[in-house]
């Protein structure tokens, strides 16, 4: 019975710890400490009116860290201590009244500022919640295995407050093999998000319907031609794995993917037939070409957006993605991208100035799948 009682006691203890932590977080420690230091200096120096006006720093500081109730409590404490010290030091009544009146005014103004700050924080939290929901609907989580591939994704929006941007990615199993897209919408903000949603919606539908990968790209192109402005476009790489050992790639004005062989060599997949970004085909008349690459067991393919390769450090040097990939390469795509992403943030000093997306797929060998206890059909069923 004793272990059972201990289990019953733990939730209550946990709740008390959470309540204590919340109370500690809401306690105006620094403002009270500030008021205490001023009072101590006055007691030691006996300076009277010289230090009393500084008591207003307490409620003013509380407005930046606490709610209106905390501000009022600090203001009340400062007023009581100020009146006590003023009487002790023999401050003339009219001067003491002026100081206390100013202290009350600062407290009321600080309380109002604290209330407005709390309201803005709640609005920002609601905006972040909506943005996260929109991002999950737009950029659906990619499982660790899709079809025969191990998969990992890392995405960072430059607008950290919104946590969503104009980069896009998707990877889905279809009747014609696994297909994926990584793209970058011209522009920022909500218009870019809307365009990304349009591209991903058309891709997900066309990838299931069209047996030819170029036909998938053509449907996206036609949809964008009807819905985008004359100056809008989307760079993208669309890839497919129609049969074992063969990878199809269509590059529409996007950064070349990096192909990693099982031996560890890293090569850029430059397009053999350069094509304009999606949405601009009518202006150039150029059509994209289909590249077919050998893709054997142990090979990996990294797709990314220009927010990665154009990230600069303090010396304005670009991030060397190819060298970074070779340096952090492993048999686990998630571990590789985690190391790459951490190094990228360190390169820019912690804050990206453009949206950045990384998508890495790896074709494990049959022996690795056997060790993991899964087969290719099982992986496909899990992804669906």
Can you put this structure into words, describing what you see?
This protein has 384 residues and is an alpha+beta fold. The chain is built from 13 helices and 11 strands. The strands form 2 sheets. The protein has a 6-stranded antiparallel β-sheet with strand order 1-2-11-10-7-8. Strand 3 (167-174) and strand 4 (177-185) form a beta hairpin. Helix 3 (57-65) runs parallel beside helix 5 and helix 10 crosses helix 11. It starts with a helix and ends with a helix.
Keywords:
about 375 residues; alpha+beta; 6-stranded antiparallel β-sheet; 5-stranded antiparallel β-sheet; disordered N terminus; disordered C terminus
Amino-to-carboxy terminus distance: 46 Å
Mean pLDDT: 82
**Residues in β-strands, percent:** 15-25%
Strand order in space, largest sheet: 1-2-11-10-7-8
Main pleated-sheet profile: 6 strands, antiparallel
Q: What is the overall shape?
A: elongated
Low-pLDDT regions = 1-13, 18-25, 374-384
Number of strands: 11
What does the secondary structure layout of this molecule look like, with pairings?
Blueprint (H helix, E strand, L loop, with lengths): L1 H25 L2 H17 L11 H9 L2 H22 L3 H46 L6 E2 L2 E8 L10 E8 L2 E9 L3 H21 L3 H15 L6 E10 L2 E7 L5 E3 L5 E3 L12 H4 L6 E4 L5 E5 L1 H4 L11 H8 L4 H16 L7 E7 L3 H7 L3 H8 L1
Antiparallel strand pairs: 1-2, 2-11, 3-4, 4-5, 5-6, 6-9, 7-8, 7-10, 10-11
Helix pairs in contact: 2-3, 2-4, 3-4, 3-5, 4-5, 6-7, 10-11
